[in-house]
């Protein structure tokens, strides 16, 4: 939502009001998908007992309408991108849920070792708990962080950030000990050696 909001503001400030309308349509469509999905999970898809469903469907239809007005039929292709972004964020929930299940599995297996009662099995159970839970903690810290960073750079920034500046050239000094490549430069920046 925040990425689409920044994108709508960016489009408005550069004079593309139809583009801003399309970004707002993306927000409405994403919220419509998310709220209808949650209602479906909770088995609340009955319009007579749950009148808020009209709002959810209105968000969905309003988002599609704004995308069609702003971008024409090509706006419908953007709907799949929005759905994929919503599903990408739900992947974080799956990763965290897998971490919890992995912890339970290590606990159950170690509990079976402890139930045997002999010192050797108890030591094996303690070793399994120590190694397994340490591995699970490391995985639980790094994997959602990596996925979250990927989501920010791919899904969030793609809504409003357009990198159209100069190519990054950190070493602007003349070469003394190496020869420049004969391949053409990757960027169109004349300062690129």
From TrEMBL:
Transmembrane segments: 20-41, 53-72, 92-114, 121-142
Keyword set includes Transmembrane helix: yes
Keywords of this entry: Membrane, Transmembrane, Transmembrane helix
Region (Disordered): 171-193
UniProt keyword Membrane, yes or no: yes
Protein name: V-type ATP synthase subunit I
Species: mine drainage metagenome
């Amino acid at each position: 939502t925040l990425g689409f909001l920044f994108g709508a503001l960016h489009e408005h400030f550069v004079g593309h009001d139809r583009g801003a309308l399309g970004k707002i349509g993306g927000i409405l469509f994403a919220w419509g998908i998310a709220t209808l999905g949650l209602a479906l999970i909770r088995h609340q898809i009955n319009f007579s007992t749950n009148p808020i469903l009209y709002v959810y469907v209105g968000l969905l239809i309003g988002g599609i309408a704004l995308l069609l007005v702003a971008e024409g039929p090509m706006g419908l292709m953007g709907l799949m991108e929005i759905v994929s972004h919503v599903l990408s964020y739900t992947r974080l929930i799956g990763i965290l849920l897998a971490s919890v299940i992995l912890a339970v599995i290590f606990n159950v297996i170690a509990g079976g070792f402890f139930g045997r009662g002999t010192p050797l099995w108890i030591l094996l159970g303690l070793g399994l708990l120590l190694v397994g839970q340490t591995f699970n903690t490391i995985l639980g810290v790094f994997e959602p962080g990596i996925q979250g960073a990927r989501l920010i750079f791919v899904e969030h920034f793609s809504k409003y950030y357009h990198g159209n500046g100069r190519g990054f050239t950190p070493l602007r000094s003349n070469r003394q000990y190496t020869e420049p490549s004969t391949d053409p430069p990757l960027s169109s920046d004349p300062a690129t050696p």
